[in-house]
Structures are given as structure tokens and as C-alpha cells.
Give the backbone structure.
Amino acid sequence: MHRGLGPFAGSEEDRLIDTSWPEERFLVRPGVDLRGPGDWGTVFGRKGELSVEIGYGKDEFLLELAEARPDGLFLGIDFSRPRTRSYLRKIAKRRLENVRVLYEHAANAIGYCLGDQAVSELFVLFPDPWPKERHARNRLVRPWFAREAARVLEPGGRFTLATDHPPYRDQMIEVIEANGAFTNLRGPGNFGPRPEGFDETIFERRWVDQGRDVFYLQYTRVTA
Ligand SMILES: C[S@@+](CC[C@H](N)C(=O)[O-])C[C@H]1O[C@@H](n2cnc3c(N)ncnc32)[C@H](O)[C@@H]1O
């Protein structure tokens, strides 16, 4: 199945279809709009602190931040075609010139589009939990992901994750803390409720309405 527009894009036909996307100016096509990982200043037309969310889904968490912080630069990453289409429309409707979108698998988006220490904050909010044990290897937060997060975050950069799924929460903690590049703001192994100033996401609301607990993890990238 075709996913993404970058160097991993599928057939030429996919590319032709994708050129007719709505509000295409917010979509970043690796190799076309972005010549290399250091090219974000060109893409946004200016420099600024870059905040990245992986897996925006139908949620507008990052768009709220972008609206509240017009000086910042905001990049959403998701590999869902319908969600990306509707996200592009939402960005246009809100007139958010400081937001861009990568329609890519996170591994491609991070590995090929984000340079070392390029990111000030990184959000992974309610990623697919893959609750069945035999599917757990599909989870996003695994050692490769922690390594990439450590590479792209600037020293002191913030890394926030959330889930409703206790086994995934424990996996996140284990994997991120084993990496050694992060300090848990709540103390090693700890998690807590949604931090102040964070908007509830769509998935969070769904789980809370069903009576489930949600867990937030907050890390900073160590400076050494
Ligand atoms: C469960 S939804 C959560 C959406 C939103 N953050 C919220 O809390 O409402 C997870 C989203 O992550 C996206 N996603 C999952 N794995 C991904 C990956 N490897 N790369 C990019 N996007 C991914 C899915 O397409 C989906 O839109």
C-alpha cells in the first residue's frame, strides 16, 4: 500500500493523484519542497523553534499550539491519507501559516527529514496501542524510535507521550529510560495526568468517557 510522498512514495500514479490534494501548500514533499533535513527554514520561510507531533489523527492539539504561539514552527506527521486530507483543510481554515504536514511513516519522516537537534519539542499522544501481545512489535515507541528522538531533539528539548494502555505505558518508560538520553520530569519510571496547559485530545476524551485512565510521560533531552 502506498504511504507517503517522499523518497518512499509508490508509483508515479500515486504522485499524480497526490498533486491534487487540498491546501497542498501546507504539505511538505520530501525531495521536492524539502531538499534535505536542514531545509526547514526554506520550507517555513523563516527560522524558529520547531515542535513536532507524530500521529495527529483527527485531533487539533498541534493546531491549538500553533495558534497560541505564532512565532513557533509546527510540523505534524501522520501516514493516514484521509486524516491528512482533513488536517490540511483544518490548517487552511484556521489560517495557520506556521504549520506544515508530512504525510509519511514516522520512520521516514524522522530519519530523512529531521536533522540532528532540529526539534525543540516532540509529541506522541495516544499512538496506536496494538494491544494484542502478538502485535506489540508494531508499536511506534521502540528502541529505534527512542534513538531517533534523542538524535533530533535539541539539548533541553521536551518529549511528551501519552497512552491509555498500561502495557504500552510501561514499554514507553522502559524503552525511553533505557536509551539514557532523557530525564523523566516526574522521576524515573513515573507518569501522571495530563500536564497543565495541554488540551485533551480526541482519543483521550474517548478513553476518559469510557472510564479509562490516561497516562502522560514527560521527558527532557539531557544536555551532555
Ligand atoms: C490512535 S490515533 C491518535 C490521534 C491523536 N493523537 C489523538 O490523540 O486523538 C494514532 C494516529 O497515529 C497515526 N500513526 C500511527 N502510526 C504511525 C506511524 N508509524 N507514522 C505516522 N503516523 C502514524 C495513525 O494514522 C493515527 O492517525
